[in-house]
TrEMBL record:
This is Thioredoxin reductase. InterPro entries: FAD/NAD-bd_sf, FAD/NAD-binding_dom, Ferredoxin-NADP_redctase_2. Residues 2-277 form the FAD/NAD(P)-binding domain. Keywords: Flavoprotein, Oxidoreductase. SUPFAM superfamilies: FAD/NAD(P)-binding domain.
Length: 305
């Protein structure tokens, strides 16, 4: 039996594992190999690694963890999870079973992109979600925002304020937007429906209803997210509602509502960011270690709070 199984081997999960490995605890990191930012060419705003591809950073990180003999890493998708504090069970798609005293959930969330041809192919390259992560690389260029929710107006105002004076919000006729505030800020609005997107190395061409097309350097949108069929859902962790979807409710030591289960990274916060994932992973790793030593001081969060 492992002291801890970490489900998810991206930035939060590996950081949590590092804290526990340095405490000489036996740790197994299980990773499905599908990090949320796998299509991004560079991780921006990350101190010391600005512009380095996320896959390269993770590769270096995994190599670092090999120095800790009590820490194991393996690929695989978790299909079943259960048990209780002190005796959790984790089953992989290939039928392998593992046991651990504690669990750390760092498997992230799944993005649900709008059903528009071309968006999935451009996701993480010319179809983007975060001005802080990707805005500087298209600064001053014509940018579009696809309003998948009212958060689209928020994105458009942010981009217009500090990244470009040529921002178009494609509303598709969405009601409830503050048109006066958007116009005052200089955001252009297009009420036509987005029907398709075509990407290339220099930008994205959007096909709009009526047969017209518009050219932009990038398209920003905020996809809905889901935890359906995830380990967090299987365990029944209490959730909070975020602007784009639910996330696992955690306490000050990254503990969830399930005794002995901790969570870190995108699965446990409404705002995804690599820097936050590092911090969350460190908190989950140290909180989990404290639970192994002093279980009475790490109490689960209340589901109703």
């Amino acid at each position: 039996m492992y002291d801890v199984i970490v489900i998810g081997g991206s930035f939060a999960g590996l950081t949590a594992a590092l804290q526990l490995g340095r405490a000489s605890r036996s740790v197994l990191v299980i990773d499905a190999g599908l990090p949320r930012n796998r299509t991004s060419a560079g991780a921006h705003g990350v101190a010391g690694w600005d512009g380095i591809a996320p896959a390269e950073i993770l590769g270096r990180f995994r190599d670092d963890l090999k120095a800790y003999p009590h820490l194991s890493q393996r690929g695989g998708k978790v299909t079943a999870i259960g048990g209780q504090m002190g005796a959790f069970s984790v089953t992989l798609e290939n039928g392998e079973d593992f046991a651990a005293k504690r669990l750390i959930l760092a498997h992230g969330v799944r993005d649900i992109l709008p059903d528009v041809p071309g968006l999935a192919e451009g996701w993480g390259r010319q179809v983007l979600h975060c001005p802080y992560c990707h805005g500087y690389e298209v600064k001053g260029e014509p940018l579009a925002v696809f309003a998948t929710s009212h958060m689209g107006a928020h994105q458009a105002l942010m981009l217009r304020a500090d990244w470009s004076d040529r921002v178009t919000l494609i509303t598709g006729g969405m009601d409830g937007l503050d048109h006066a505030a958007l116009e005052l800020a200089g955001v252009q609005m297009d009420s036509r429906a987005l029907e398709a997107a075509q990407i290339d190395e220099s930008g994205i061409t959007l096909s709009l209803s009526g047969g017209d097309s518009q050219r932009f350097a990038a398209l920003f949108l905020g996809p809905r997210t889901t935890l359906a069929e995830s380990p967090a859902a299987h365990l029944g962790c209490a959730l909070s509602d975020g602007p784009m979807g639910p996330f696992v409710k955690v306490g000050p030591m990254a503990q969830t509502s399930i005794p002995g289960v901790f969570a870190a990274g995108d699965v446990a916060r409404p705002m995804p960011n690599i820097n936050f994932a590092f911090a969350d992973g460190a908190q989950a790793g140290s909180g989990c270690h404290a639970s192994l030593l002093f279980p009475e001081i790490v109490t689960p969060v209340e589901a109703a709070q």
